[in-house]
Amino acid sequence: MDNIRIAEDPTAVAHQCADFAIETLSAAVKANGRASFAISGGHSPKLLFSLLASRPFDWSEVHFFWVDERCVPPDSDESNYKLANLSLLLPAKIPQTNIHRVHGEVTPDEGALLYIESIRTFFGLANHQLPVFDLLHRGMGPDAHTASLFPGEPLIRNETGIAAAVWVEKFKSHRVTLLPGVLKQAGQTVLQVSGSDKADALHNVLKGPEDPLQFPCQIGTRGSNRAVWFLDKAAAAKI
Questions:
Q1: pLDDT of res. 43
Q2: Which end of the chain has fewer CB atoms within 10 angstroms, the N or the C?
Q3: What distance in Å separates the CA atoms of residue 160 and residue 118, rounded to the nearest whole number?
Q4: For the segment 182-192, what is each residue's pLDDT rounded down to a tens digit?
Q5: Would you kindly state where each structural domain of the chain is located, as residue ranges?
């Protein structure tokens, strides 16, 4: 399948993701004068972010958003913003006006509302309109979760909202996450998945029954020609 690209190891995966991201963002800036890039947290993106920061690329017209965020202050080691800030935003000298972070330091509901308003303002959205990010970067957990949409989460059925606060029981953690309608709308989605602990989940997402409530990473990927999977051999072992 041309939307599945398998590399030797996580490092090679990150390099391929970086190439794809630069190509996609360059095309968006050329076409529209700016680009919107929604990024994820976790362990996988760190090398990707460092690679992006090291590329000879003009970031001045790229605007950064987050697929999800933990409800913690921006200087917390748990913050997805902090990871991106140290690995990409600061090294690449991204203008502050281009950074549209989730305010994890306020209450979860306040953080979600502020984030929704930030997105609506940037995209010039009317009520009930959803944003179309030029590039959306996602990962997948061993349980097939993506963003902060975990198996069984009722928000998986929400196709009309932009973002929401969510309680992740598995990690006893409040988060803010983009919602399925937004994930499905993205111009391009890149999924970065590495490790043998993801192999079963990846098989279920790609080849199992179509059931996003059980396999949330199917959202915006199953049957889509705008989602590209970048996998290492360990993650791809069962597909």
A1: 79
A2: N
A3: 17
A4: 999 999 999 99
A5: 4-238
